[in-house]
Amino acid sequence: MLKIARAAAWAALPLALGLAHAHAHADSATDTKLSRILQDISAPRIEARIRSLVDFQTRHTLSETASDTRGIGAARRWIQRELQACSQATGGRLQVEMDSFIEPVGARVARPTELVNVVATLPGSSPAARDRLLVVSGHYDSRNSDVMDAEGAAPGANDDASGVAAVMEMACAMARHSFDATLVFMAVPGEEQGLLGATHWAKRARAKGLRVEAMITNDIIGSSTGDAGQRDQRQVRLFADGFDPLLRLLVQARSNSPASEAEVRANEAWREPLTQLALAGGAEDLPTQQLGRHLKAAGERYLPGFKVNLIQRRDRYLRGGDHLPFLERGYAAVRFSEPFEDFRHQHQNPRTEGGVVYGDLPEFVDFEYVANVSRINAVGLATLALAPAAPQNVRLEATELTNDSTLSWAAGSEPELAGYRIVWRSTDSATWQQSKDVGLVTSHRLPGVSKDNVIFGVQALSKAGQASLASYPLPLRR
To answer: pLDDT-derived band of residue 92, with 50, 70 and 90 as boundaries?
Structure first.
């Protein structure tokens, strides 16, 4: 209890400072909403949920489903009940559904298997923004040393009960509030067997033409301690690298199961815009990188002292997470993961050898750390859900030799839209360094700021001062 109290005291300090240090343009009502969300996220509740998931002994994707106390079936029904209870506590605001499908036999699936995504949706309050979807996930399946062992103990406390507990806590805290855009909280199965639950949802979203503006997965966010004993409770890694439009084609060319004709048609709508951005010098400014910048800025603004390490990679070497199926379908998608990893507590049969304890057990999880990563997620999602959509048809004039820069964009139509902000940075900076609010206009000239020397973006601003993701300008030549 003393350890939890000390951790909670540390967490309260950056929270209070963060709200005092909030962006000058954010209004007090928005800050009050964000403050309540952050304060409602509870490390003890996260701990209780992680321990409950571990108590199912194994959550292997192919484990039993009939039992009420053991296996993946019991786990998913428990997650459903917990989210339904949160919905009831908030007047039915969360729409909880079981997204079931049959996964055929594959490399890590020995028999046709029913898989179920547990999905809780908080519909947006603005008719003009409700179709903008912000998705956050964790995977509730687990594994031990043998990825095909569906019977042995696989506690999965960190990988990935930590991510699932974080998503559940965010859903329950954020359901108490209204947001313009729609928030989707998901617990998905089959990650260890090949990202199966996430792939099903992302593929269906693309086929339906759903407007997924951002996707975050939380996978292995439970420990602030590494295998060499290094420890840092005040940082998290954020993997955010944009989609190479050619990569999907290369993967399909090397596989025996290329995309169906219908999927190819569904992909055409997003592949061309990403290609245009990349060819225009925006390979580091695709929507995924813009999402990473947003999450870093929002998280560090409202939790000062907590660092979001922005890593321009799709994921770690030899590993992958549930954001990848979204990336591969053109959506902006990123992954949060702990700062260090201790591989003795991942994908291991629980055991003790030579005095060393192996296994993904609750005693190796830092629950207050998980709570702070949850807060970083929540503030990033909330500020984005309260902002307008990113500007469209953004252009940078390249018609004359000048040391000034002129940008233009299409006018937005959301009722909460209050104006626009131009942001820029040097070419060797990963984050925005300067900005200028230009009002409710559709073009602006920046005297003395040379387009040759910096990278620009344009954001839409809400009346409460929340900024959208930045849009990279394509060159406009006459």
So the answer is: very high
